[in-house]
Amino acid sequence: MGGAGNAAPAAMEMRPAPPPQPGADAGVRRYIASKHQITLETPAAALQQQFLAIQAECIKLGCEIVESRQMNALPRQPPHAYLSARVPPAAFERFFTSAQAQARLIEHHTESEDKTADVIDVDARIKNAEALKARVLDLLAKRTGNMKEILEAEKQLAETQAELDSINGQRRALAKQTDMVRVEITLVAQSLSVEGSFAAPVTEALHESGRVLMSSLGALITFAVGALPWGLAITALVMFVLRLNRRRKRKAAAKSQAAS
User: Fold this and answer.
1) Which of 24, 126, 216, 242 is the most buried (most CB within 10 A)?
2) Tens-place pLDDT, residues 2-39
3) pTM exceeding 0.85
4) pLDDT above 90 (res 199)
5) Buried b or exposed e, range 110-123, using 16+ CB within 10 angstroms
6) How many whole angstroms separate alpha carbon 177 and alpha carbon 165?
7) Which residues share a beta bridge with 84?
8) 88 in helix, strand or coil?
């Protein structure tokens, strides 16, 4: 029994795996997180239909849609739609080609990040936690310790399982980043003010002149509303002064007539 009691603390100790040595990962699989940001342009009347077609193709290819939203037209802002999805690497080129068949490509930006070190670290922590869990389970199965040691082992088992669940969650999150390609598509409506459009200078001039006119009218209304109380007060004061002057003149005229 004493030998089992001495072995219990060692069984509950969890040591991290040693870091890989330089040059030792030459044959190790690389885990790369890839991200594509794509901007497409389409006529405003066709935006909704084409956006739905892009989503349908994404689902058909086995994508996982993370976010999807569509915004209606607002003042000085044309309608647009946004799709964020995780695409299987083998299906990305087909999905990209299909999206370009729906609308005109404006911009395509690509990012990539090597997550290999993170994956190796998480996998090592999972391996250590599973080994510790197995040792604690073996200790509990043998029941060779006293009640205090058994209770400590059960507590260690619960803590190890909670940590293992957390690490497995991190591993699943990494897998979503490295096993799938993140694609973000912004679909925007065509505008007459697009650079290079024949009507662009006239359209922009009309928009700007209208904005200036409305701004001036707004400023005039604001000034009129702000000046109105002061105008009423000044008008009342002027009328009072004029009335007072008329009274003084009448009194002066009456005194002159009385003196004569």
Assistant:
1) 126
2) 443 443 333 333 344 444 444 445 567 889 999 999 99
3) no
4) no
5) eeeeebeebbbbbe
6) 19
7) 67, 184
8) coil
